[in-house]
Amino acid sequence: MVRSRRLRLTCVQLPGPDQRVLNTRRVVKSERPGSTEDAPAGYEGVWRFTAPADDVSVPQARHAVRDLLNRQGVPAQDELVQGLLLIVSELVTNAVRHAALLSPVLAVEVAIGTEWIRVSVEDNHPYRPKALERDYAQTGGRGLLLVREITVEAGGVCDIEHTASGGKIIWVALPLAGPSLTSPPSAPSAL
Questions:
Q1: Are 92 and 80 in contact (CB under 8 A)?
Q2: DSSP secondary structure string, the chain?
Q3: What is the mean pLDDT of residues 12-17?
Q4: Which of 54, 109, 113, 148 has the fewest CB atoms lying closer than 10 Å?
């Protein structure tokens, strides 16, 4: 008998993109009567889910992010969405292959603003990876290089942060509108 492990999707919608919580309750932003602030777009928010550090989690995480973007009606071009989904696949694959020993569970967070989308993958392994330079003799090890290239091409930024528990968060933020032809190239990423 073959048992399939399912992705445990525990979405948490938070009031702002910079806040993190680890519980599974939904936090709703309260509207103040008479507020003159612009109302957030219907697709804005932060969602977080966990998954086992297992190969089956890679396509499940990609599908969960795709379904979230569709369900929320995020106004992103197909090319941006495809690049973002490839980034999710590469970051989750990296966590599964290199952090599973110390991190049997990983977390994926998607934060959507009016002009950008940020995706991050968190694990409890302390190693801070670097994107390898192109080595055409290698058959693998290009995931973070691919993440960096897609991010730069889209006009976004990526970085790695340490967590309080000693792990790391690798994140990518992409503009929903794509890169501006008049904007200067972004600074090199930490990947």
A1: no
A2: ---PPPP------BSSTT----S-----PPPPTT--SPPPPTT-EEEEEEEESSTTHHHHHHHHHHHHHHHHT----HHHHHHHHHHHHHHHHHHHHHHTTT-SEEEEEEEE-SSEEEEEEEES------PPPP-TT-SS--HHHHHHHHHHHTT-EEEEEE-TTS-EEEEEEEETT---TTSPPPPPP--
A3: 40
A4: 54
Supply 176's token pair. 């929903």
| Pick from 1-10, 40-49, 124-133, 178-187: least confident | 1-10
pLDDT band at 93 (very low <50, low <70, confident <90, very high): very high
> Rounded to the nearest 10 degrees, what angle do helices 78-99 and 57-72 cross at?
150
